[in-house]
Amino acid sequence: MTLREPSVDTGDYVVVDSVDGPSQLVVHTTRDPQGHDTTPYVVVISPNTIVHPDDDSSAQRVGTDTGLMPGDRFYFVGSILSAPPHRVVEATRIFVGI
Question: What is the pTM of this model?
Fold first, then answer.
């Protein structure tokens, strides 16, 4: 059995605006608003999303239980599912607290 990494075509530093169920977060970028779109968008968390918690960078878990709440910051990499104006991204990896 060959393990295949999902494609990654995006990444962003974000803050959580709201949690819309166990597998969706509404976020907006924390990058400089002069050069980046700050419109909120959806990050989908799949059962295969790898979460790196901020308490121990060597620990990781897989799945939709990110423990993220409104106001939390994280960096992610993933795949674009739909483009703006209704941007949706599926997270492959999440790095909490960055």
Answer: 0.84
